[in-house]
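User: Batch of two.

Assistant: Item 1 of 2:
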Amino acid sequence: MHFIYLLTSLSFTLLNCISLIDRHFELHPKTQKMFPRFHDVPRSELMSNKFFLQAAYNCFFGLTFMVKNIDDMALIDSLLIKFASASYYIAHPTAKQQLDETTRITLEVMKEELGSDVMTPEVSDAWKSLLNHVHEVLANRNELAPLSQDDLDVINTDWAIAKRNKQVGATTMLK
């Protein structure tokens, strides 16, 4: 992979990750519903929501981790596999279509935020290659461990509980 191209564009900051997530929510409003802590916060108020900002930090640090460890794809894959879950996808379109859309949106936002001086065709190709690898790992994991209808029912019940009680995770962890 083109490490130097990825590194030169690593100036993709936290604010750019905020733009990236916000663009996803703009184009695919259902995806915001996947975040119980800010699922019902209007997009215009997300910048002042600490849980939304936490998601943006996670996005930024995840991208930084992958770029800095690009020479150890097994390490990146092991991290991705831990986070891969069919429950992270909305019902339609397919997980693969959602991942492809994520790549498209990411590259689009990066070009807008970084400009064409930084986001050259070579840099764009390097990011596309990295993101395609990430998505391949996630999609393969999703295919290996698809959710049954019972699993989906449990997830939907959990979401309903989480929406009613935003402290459910902390409460459960303490028990």
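Item 2 of 2:
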Amino acid sequence: MEILIEKLNRSLQDKRGCERVLELTAKHSEISVEEIISNSRKYSIKVARIVAANVMMMELGIGKRETAKAVNRDRSLMYHYQSVHDGEYIFWAEYNELYDAVHFELTNGGKFKQISMEQIRHTLIREKISDCQPTYDEDGNLRTAYEITAKIGRKSFKIKCKKSEIFRKLDRISQAFHKFKHEMKYKELEI
């Protein structure tokens, strides 16, 4: 009897979780829940549907069968959604922003925005922000280099760059992480 009650409670929690994710996805994508679960193939609706399904499966741990039922799709499509999540998160800006917004509000209740080192790494790759290759003068000496230290939320990272690129990199980092509390400083490296 206890096992049956536990299964019913889990089923009810999953249903409430699915409804909450669909509501948050609808709120952040400005698309109604009815449109998300419809058979429409419209681009914006497709993005919202994939985000909702992946948040349900990956963040709430809801099974593929329940998720498929919630988004009105076939269970096999849930395997596809989950398998392509990493690539979509890195390279598909609309997907990334909507996923982060839904995930953030679901986990933090909208209080403050945190970021993981994995999200920082994916954002740096997507925005093509990386260390510069060292350059040398005519005598073979290393030219002056700078190091940017950026703190995004509670996480920090460092990027090396040339003097001519420092302000462009600072601006690109600031734009890439504009949704988060961030601070940056730079210094000339000792050579």
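The chain has a mean pLDDT of 83.
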